[in-house]
Amino acid sequence: MDHFNLSNGSIHAESVSLEAIAQAVGTPVYVYSQATLERHVRVFREAVSGAGKGEPLVAFAVKANPNGAVLRTMARAGMGADVVSGGELMRALAAGILPENIIFSGVGKTREEMALGLSHGIGQFNLESEPEAEMLSAVASAMGVEAKVAYRVNPDVDAGTHAKISTGKSENKFGIPIDTAIDAYARAAALPGLKLQGVAVHIGSQLTDLAPLETAFGKVGALVSALRAEGHDITLADLGGGLGVPYDPALPLPPSPTDYGAMVRRATAGWDVRLAFEPGRLIVANAGVLLSRVIRVKEGVSQPWVILDAAMNDLLRPSLYDAWHDIRAVKPKGEKAAANVVGPVCESGDTFATARHMDVVAADDLVVFMTAGAYGATMAGTYNSRALAPEVMVSGDQWAVVRPRQPLSALIDAERVPDWLAD
């Protein structure tokens, strides 16, 4: 569910007209609904409540949307954070997320990032290789502190999702093979400065079937038992995220958070550990849209070309993943037809939809990309020297720019000309 609905013939974000935002801020622009964020947090937490020992740690995957207003909403809701870089860690802390509720994931943590996490006393590092464990041990020992750690294990389970967002197969770069975990934990236990407390798993993103997750969790449960038999005090199991959201209304709905929670309780019964979760897309995807304006409509051989002022540098997912986003007219006229929807970037890959049956639009009309709150603005770039789009947060009848539009001059001002080329 989201809070983007037609009111008096025009799409509103909660009680604010998208037309009013476009007129004030320009396009393209990302618009987020605070009410939707809060509802999704509440629904997910209710779904996993009672699973595991004590209250689960729900750590928002910052990579999905690191905007400060989004993270502040997460902090006010009592959420933790799953981070994969020093920058994401600093953003989470700046938003007020408690350091003890932060999990640091990722295969390429540097010494500097490790030291940053240790200096703030974060809740857990998810180790993804034995050399990483050795590096973290050295950093923690030099600082005179202890790092709370888990190994992320790779269960060799096919999540059944897009190859570029699958993370749990043996050929993926993430984690250590689950069948080598016993030996890896034994070696890590001998390293100074590390406190082994957990096991982590994450097999992919945009999952539309619970069976691969349940299979992976079954392997993790067996590992927890085996590690305890070896004398390790395992108190936390991080089950990752990945539950899918409905992008294409023509496809069956993904499993609900309630379905997911029931599966988790069934799969983890008897583990006697606290559970952690890392939802990102599930929380923020439907809470955001990308608002764009039609530059012109160009005649095509089979369908017209609808050329927008938003481009692949603003919303990369269709180009990168062949991802679907529902595209709607902000003021629909009741007529639909097939069209190709593209941006102005000089790449054939700057295509949002081909032969899409959609609202008929004309030059200067506003269109909106639905379900764009996750992996939208955070993956944007400045290709073709296009400035980054602004972001807006809506709460009821209030709205505010939470990241201003980047001035084009900033692209030039950030560069330096070497002395030998200066006039």
TrEMBL record:
Gene3D superfamilies: Alanine racemase (3.20.20.10), Lyase, Ornithine Decarboxylase, Chain A, domain 1 (2.40.37.10). Pyridoxal 5'-phosphate binds at G242, E278, P279, G280, R281, Y375. CDD domains: PLPDE_III_DapDC. Residues 36-285 form the Orn/DAP/Arg decarboxylase 2 N-terminal domain. Pfam families: Orn_Arg_deC_N (PF02784), Orn_DAP_Arg_deC (PF00278). It catalyses: meso-2,6-diaminopimelate + H(+) = L-lysine + CO2. SUPFAM superfamilies: Alanine racemase C-terminal domain-like, PLP-binding barrel. The modification N6-(pyridoxal phosphate)lysine is found at K63. The active site is at C346. Substrate binds at R281, R317, Y321, E347, Y375. GO terms for biological process: lysine biosynthetic process via diaminopimelate. Residues 30-373 form the Orn/DAP/Arg decarboxylase 2 C-terminal domain. Homodimer. This is Diaminopimelate decarboxylase. It comes from Sphingobium boeckii. The gene is lysA.
